[in-house]
Amino acid sequence: MSAAWEFFGWILAKAPLRAGSLCRLLFFLVPMVLFAQHPAEKTVYFYSSETNINNFSLLKSEFDAFFLSHGGFRFQPFREKGQFELQVHAQPSGVFLVSSWHFRDLAESLDLEPVLVGSFRGQNTYKKILITRKGVTEFPPKKRLTIASSGSEEYAHVLLAQMAGDRLSPKDYRLLTVPKDIDALMSVGFGMADAALATERSLEKLADLNPTLYRGTVKQAESEQVMLPIVVVKTGMDGEARAVIQSFESMSDKAEGRRKLKLLGLDDWTALSDDQRRQLLQKKRGAL
Questions:
Q1: Could you report the per-residue pLDDT of 40-64, keeping only the tens digit for each?
Q2: Fewer CB under 10 Å: which end of the chain, C or N?
Q3: Number of Cβ atoms within 10 Å of the Cβ of 285
């Protein structure tokens, strides 16, 4: 039951509650924690702060189909960061798929081991760029900006702080959340937003889809290299966790698995190097 006590301690530290509120919270959470001690089936839990996934039923059904036929696991994506974190703290062990940025927050209070990192075209990292339309002579402008982004608002604020520094504070802009990076770029082109946060890969895609719109954009800032999503194990690599990791590693071997990877914007998984592990664990909470 140590995981349960750890979980309740985390809840109380996050948000001190009055007695009545605490009783209601325990009424709903105790069954979940007790269930976590004896889970009915093996599950991989997923939350992404970097993308705004708008079709959870498709994502779940596709990954369920793969994992059930490759080890008997289920896949559970989460829309809300808070709900995902409740599950991570409630589970005594397990395998979780998270962004590298979110991992640093979780690793401050949990025993998590990063094992695999996503890969695309042989690269394990990407950059985010901040673009505006050409003709912007002053950045940031004096007026309040609308910035389109496909990630969570929290993640967008961190990115913008790292990219623009003192030039741009949260009071200088509002965020427009869109489903995908390409939508963020299109928002600028069609005048729905003043600027967009997107990956370099998405900008290349825009050049193919709409060359005129692409030529009308200009890069204002770029992020440091950000690691692609990672697979982490809680409280050590037991036999069950190893089986899940092997299922991840085998995804790129077959067309079915490659189709699932594409839903995450990846084409493979690779083992984290010692240097990559150190990089993940050494960076401070909130860093990219």
A1: 468 999 998 887 676 788 899 999 9
A2: N
A3: 10
